[in-house]
Amino acid sequence: MNDRNLARGLFLILISLAFGLQALRYPIGQFGRAGAGLFPLMVSSLLFLIGVITVVRSRFDKRVHLDFNPKNIIPDLPSHWQQRAKSKPVTLE
């Protein structure tokens, strides 16, 4: 899989499924009286639809090369971890 648009669509589908399945744990309710899970479920459904459209369009559009090289990301991770270790946690009193 070396198509940037296909990877974007699959990533959107994966994220929407993660949030949509978690939203099903909450009561959905009705449109007149919405439960806690209705809004996240609707947003994740729209995101899923956008992901499916992106995957379908990637099959018809010209392929765009996906430039992903873990060698460019891995050396930068220790600096992020070090910065996070220096930051103070926020406490609410």
Helix content: 55-70%
Sketch the major β-sheet.
Answer: none
Radius of gyration: 19 Å
Structural class: mainly alpha
Low-pLDDT segments = none
Shape: flat
Number of DSSP E strands: 0
Could you tell me the strand content as a percent range? under 5%
What is the number of helices? 4
What string gives the helices and strands in order?
A: HHHH
Distance between the termini: 49 Å
Mean pLDDT: 85
Structure description:
Helix 1 (4-23) runs antiparallel to helix 2 (38-60). With 93 residues, the chain is mostly helical. Helices cover 61% and strands 0% of the residues. It is built from 4 helices and no strands. It is flat, with a radius of gyration of 19 Å. The model has no long low-confidence stretch (mean pLDDT 85). The protein has a domain at 4-68.
Q: What is the gist of this entry?
A:
61% of the residues lie in helices and 0% in strands. The chain has helices spanning 4-23, 38-60, 70-73, 77-86.
Features:
single chain, 93 residues, mainly alpha, 4 helices
List the helices and strands and how they pair.
Layout: H1 4-23, H2 38-60, H3 70-73, H4 77-86
Helix pairs in contact: 1-2
